[in-house]
Amino acid sequence: MSPDLILAGAGLANALIALAVAERRPGARILMLDRAPGPSDSHTWSFHDPDLRLSWHRRLAPAIRCRWQGQEVRFPDHARTLRAGYASLDGAGLARLLEETPGVTLRWNAEITKLDSGSATLDGERIEAPCVIDGRGAAPSRHLVTGYQKFVGVEFEMDAPHGVTRPVIMDATVPQQDGYRFVYLLPFSTTRLLIEDTRYSDGAALDEEALARAIADYATDKGWTGHEVRREHGVLPIALAHAAARLWAEAQGGPVPVGMRAGLFHPVTGYSLPVAAQMADVVAAAGSTTAEVFAAVRAHALARAGDDRFLRLLNRMLFHGCPPEHRHRVLSRFYRLPEPLIERFYAGKLTRMDRLRIVTGKPPIPIRDALPCLREAPLLKETP
Ligand SMILES: Cc1cc2nc3c(=O)[nH]c(=O)nc-3n(C[C@H](O)[C@H](O)[C@H](O)COP(=O)(O)OP(=O)(O)OC[C@H]3O[C@@H](n4cnc5c(N)ncnc54)[C@H](O)[C@@H]3O)c2cc1C
């Protein structure tokens, strides 16, 4: 096969690109190469309904594992049910969808040892294509300064119905530890429950067993007993400062970076599905060479990084303007804001009025602590 498009990595960003390109350019030969032996069962990719356009709801529908009406947040001083629907995809569903998509060839066990703007090299095999996209997952960049969202999730089959009827996006009534701590619950059935313990922390070190024990304690506290069926963990970047133009200047001349390695994620949550869907539309509408796609993706990414400046400021106030044990107060205040604003926040579509609304009123942190957080340039200077 001589492909029109090589997608290096068959993770989330490239999966969405494959779906969008296959639909927009029927007949295009898309080759996806991934070193993993098969679809990941160590992921659930969730999103809020308003995060995605209708075309993406339609495209992803066959890969949805579970869908819910509404979601909850819980804080020591208030709790709230939010109306927005929520849904989760998994690796198996996404791989099934790709395998059924005409034009897409998915090769597992395909470790790429060299990648450039016109080819991918595997063990003893070189494959050429006019367009090469690099979606091989997160890669550290000195142009992106981050805090961390660290988590461990354990999926349980409970011995009896657990009684959770909708996703609990944040249960921050738990003792605060290692920064802002909350538990996230996804009820996949009346007895199947994902319990995830999350920390917004300064350091990237993840003590998986300690978090797993904290999850077991949380379950015991709720009176749930059952057995573990699956586990996932992650250390996601929370963007504090981003020199996007420098990142893209370094990538010039190579394959087109996408996904986490291109800094394309929601700065505050570290989630990337909505951004990946938007970027997949950009790729599908761009030309068919690496240079054309690079130019379109770069322009979109730079515009986005500019728009995200405000979210990075919020992160700096959360991580640098607030002692770790007080971070939950900022989030608690945020979740008292009007629901449409919260929905636009997750979708990355805050208006000017929304931004004003977030920072006015009783400040989440004292002004004197907020002032040193205003500029992001000093953080970038610190990077080697
Ligand atoms: C456990 C977990 C849960 C998450 N949950 C959510 C969520 O609910 N919602 C959300 O929006 N975001 C979520 N995220 C954050 C983010 O969306 C994911 O990390 C997402 O998978 C990133 O997409 P990506 O395409 O950039 O990278 P990945 O999905 O990580 O894909 C990279 C792929 O490249 C392959 N690869 C790497 N190197 C090579 C190589 N040399 N040769 C061949 N293949 C290679 C890997 O095997 C992998 O399949 C989660 C992250 C984690 C870790």
UniProtKB/TrEMBL annotation:
It comes from the Bacteria. SUPFAM superfamilies: FAD/NAD(P)-binding domain. Pfam families: Lycopene_cycl. GO terms for molecular function: isomerase activity. The keyword Isomerase applies. InterPro entries: CrtY, FAD/NAD-bd_sf, Lycopene_cyclase_b/e. Its EC number is 5.5.1.19. Keywords: Isomerase. Belongs to the lycopene cyclase family. This is Lycopene beta-cyclase CrtY. It comes from Paracoccus niistensis. The gene is crtY.
